[in-house]
Q: What sequence folds into this?
């Protein structure tokens, strides 16, 4: 008796961790449901997915593609050729791999890959992380079979019949964390009974947040607030020097936090950028958060993400321009207001969708078998 061919899943997403890690999480969720499934990722040559995806145990192929720059550059002049080249290569990859479904999580390579899949009659699923979608996903939406979103009200951007409210995939260890506060405080050499602030600016750090915290260290110390400060590599040495007078007070710095489950468990308050995946993690862990949206992202996504929370009294927002003047005073005010902390925790937790990867995996598998490659 002939055995059926294994299900084949093609995923495309990259450029930043916010696109790569959701794609990996979805792949792992599908693998848990269908262990025999075969996977292939498509990314952009020279971008971080070309290292991160193989490190997660999956194969990846690269396209010659990049984004448009805001000024006249060689990359902009070559952009049309990159698009044509990427569409041709994406079609070749699809014809060779013969996927049953193609999943896009955003990033430079996602556009050509999903467009090629749609023209070849392969079912496609878009996973949109932000409350305000980028140009690529808006262009792909018409031909996509399913659009998985993290925020309500996305009908104004996408066809309502294709939308599924799933949330954003987050790291398994955060969605199902068992870390206790005592264990977490001990891991960072912190003391119980003090208010603990976690500052995270993404894996590369955030200059405005770092400078704001640096100039406010004395004020934090004066209000008995201890600190876990993830600085990114570029600011690590300067931050380490800055906290030396306060190390006995529980001020600790690190370029990167590998055990985010422990960092969140230790924290009473969080300061963070407002990337979509960061916000989804914050919803899952249910911590009072002050968001400082990055102004350096396409279509001001992070401000729109923040407003989706502040509109439900689930977060406090300080603009990047106001951060040096207002961020640390806002932290001190929140630390002294337990009622506000409780309100923020309850409201942000109500927005959590912690099984997003499993839900998206089920949506993707529901599309399998509907079409054949032409």
A:
């Amino acid at each position: 008796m002939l055995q059926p061919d294994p299900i084949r899943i093609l995923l495309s997403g990259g450029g930043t961790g916010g696109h790569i890690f959701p794609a990996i999480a979805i792949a792992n969720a599908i693998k848990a449901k269908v262990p025999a499934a075969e996977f292939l990722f498509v990314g952009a040559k020279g971008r971080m997915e070309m290292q991160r995806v193989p490190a997660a145990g999956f194969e990846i192929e690269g396209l010659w593609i990049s984004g448009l720059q805001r000024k006249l550059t060689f990359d902009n002049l070559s952009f049309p050729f990159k698009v044509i080249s990427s569409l041709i290569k994406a079609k070749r990859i699809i014809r060779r791999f013969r996927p049953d479904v193609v999943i896009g999580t955003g990033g430079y390579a996602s556009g050509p890959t999903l467009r090629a899949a749609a023209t070849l009659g392969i079912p496609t699923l878009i996973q949109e992380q932000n409350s305000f979608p980028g140009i690529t996903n808006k262009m792909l939406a018409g031909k996509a079979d399913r659009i998985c979103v993290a925020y309500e009200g996305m009908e104004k951007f996408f066809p309502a019949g294709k939308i599924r409210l799933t949330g954003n995939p987050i790291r398994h260890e955060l969605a199902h964390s068992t870390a206790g506060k005592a264990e977490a405080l001990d891991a960072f050499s912190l003391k119980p009974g003090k208010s603990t602030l976690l500052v995270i600016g993404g894996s590369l750090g955030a200059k405005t947040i770092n400078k704001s915290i640096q100039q406010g260290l004395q004020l934090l110390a004066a209000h008995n607030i201890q600190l876990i400060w993830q600085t990114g590599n570029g600011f690590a040495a300067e931050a380490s020097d800055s906290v030396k007078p306060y190390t006995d007070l529980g001020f600790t710095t690190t370029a990167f936090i590998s055990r985010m489950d422990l960092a969140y468990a230790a924290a009473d308050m969080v300061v963070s950028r407002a990337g979509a995946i960061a916000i989804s993690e914050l919803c899952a862990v249910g911590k009072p958060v002050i968001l400082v949206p990055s102004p350096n992202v396409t279509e001001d996504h992070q401000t729109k993400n923040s407003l989706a929370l502040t509109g439900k009294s689930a977060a406090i927002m300080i603009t990047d321009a106001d951060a040096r003047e207002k961020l640390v005073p806002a932290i001190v005010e929140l630390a002294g207001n337990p009622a506000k902390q409780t309100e923020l925790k309850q409201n942000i937790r109500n927005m959590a969708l912690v099984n997003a990867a499993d839900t998206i995996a089920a949506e993707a598998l529901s599309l399998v078998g509907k079409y054949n490659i032409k």
